[in-house]
Every structure is written in C-alpha cells, then in structure tokens.
Amino acid sequence: MRKVLYIEDHEAQRDIMVQMMELYGYEIDVASNGEEGVKKAQEWHPDIVLMDIRMPGRIDGLVAIRQLRSDPDTGDIPIIVVSAWGSVKLKERAMSAGADAHFTKPVTMNELTAAINRHLRQPS
C-alpha cells in the first residue's frame, strides 16, 4: 500500500482526505502544519506528500517544501500542492520551491489520484 502524507491545517479537510485516500487504497497520515509535516515526512518516509501552502506557524507550505527538498532523506519524495490559493504567482512560487504539481481546491479525487499515480510511477 502506497503511503501518502497530507499536510493541511484545516481539520475537516484532513478528515475528508483521509476517508477518500483510504477508499482509494492508500495508507495516509496527516500533519496540521508545516513543521509537523516535515518531521513526519522525515520519520515516516511517505511515497508522496500532499501539501497545503497557507498554514499557521513558523513553517508554511513553501518553507516546508524547501526543507523537504534540501534533506537527502526526503528530497526525492514527490510533493503535490493542494491549496485554496490558485493565483499564477503562487503556483509559480510553489513550483520554484520544489513542488511537482499544484492543484487549486476543490480538486476532484479523479484528478488528484491520477496525479498521485503519475508521480509515483516516475523514476527517482
């Protein structure tokens, strides 16, 4: 079973994503902010990370992406941004930080799982 880490500050969205990912056959863990997400990624070694951008605390999604990319243990984990903020500028910032893809909420599960599967099949 492929492991997905979902980093999102809104509890209701985390709960929905957990239910959907489990229905689609993924093992999923969650983090409520960037700092917790980076730590969980380093400890749990997910196959892919789904990342919100705007989160409270010292580490937002962009900083978390940069930290994951700079760590040899997590640097090659695919990161898909799932954010309510969909401006061209923010998408460019996310991709420049090291994200592999960006989706603006709401995203359909078909779109999201297709992107997950596409990134999981790419060679490291």
Give me the secondary-structure topology.
Elements lengths: L2 E5 L3 H13 L3 E5 L2 H11 L3 E4 L9 H10 L8 E5 L4 H10 L3 E4 L4 H13 L3
Parallel strand pairs: 1-2, 1-3, 3-4, 4-5
Helix pairs in contact: 2-3
Structural description of this entry:
- With 124 residues, the chain is an alpha/beta fold.
- It has a single domain (3-121), classed as 3-Layer(aba) Sandwich (Rossmann fold).
- The protein has 5 helices and 5 strands; from the N terminus they run βαβαβαβαβα.
- The protein has helices at 11-23, 34-44, 61-70, 88-97, 109-121; strands at 3-7, 27-31, 48-51, 79-83, 101-104.
- The protein has a 5-stranded parallel sheet with strand order 2-1-3-4-5, sandwiched between helices.
- Strand 1, helix 1 and strand 2 form a beta-alpha-beta unit.
- The chain is globular and about 30 Å long.
Features:
124 residues, alpha/beta, Rossmann fold, 5 helices
What does the main sheet amount to? 5 strands, parallel
Q: What is the highest CATH level, the class?
A: Alpha Beta
Q: State the CATH topology.
A: Rossmann fold
Please tell me how large the radius of gyration is.
13 Å
- Net shape: globular
Q: Please state the structural category.
A: alpha/beta
DSSP helical segment count: 5
Beta-strand residue fraction: 15-25%
Query: Structurally, how many domains make up the residues?
Result: 1
Distance between the termini: 18 Å
Name the CATH homologous superfamily. Response regulator
DSSP strand tally: 5
Strand order of the largest sheet: 2-1-3-4-5
User: Are there runs of 5+ residues with pLDDT below 50, and where?
Assistant: none
Please state the average pLDDT score: 94
Question: Strand-and-helix sequence, N→C?
Answer: EHEHEHEHEH
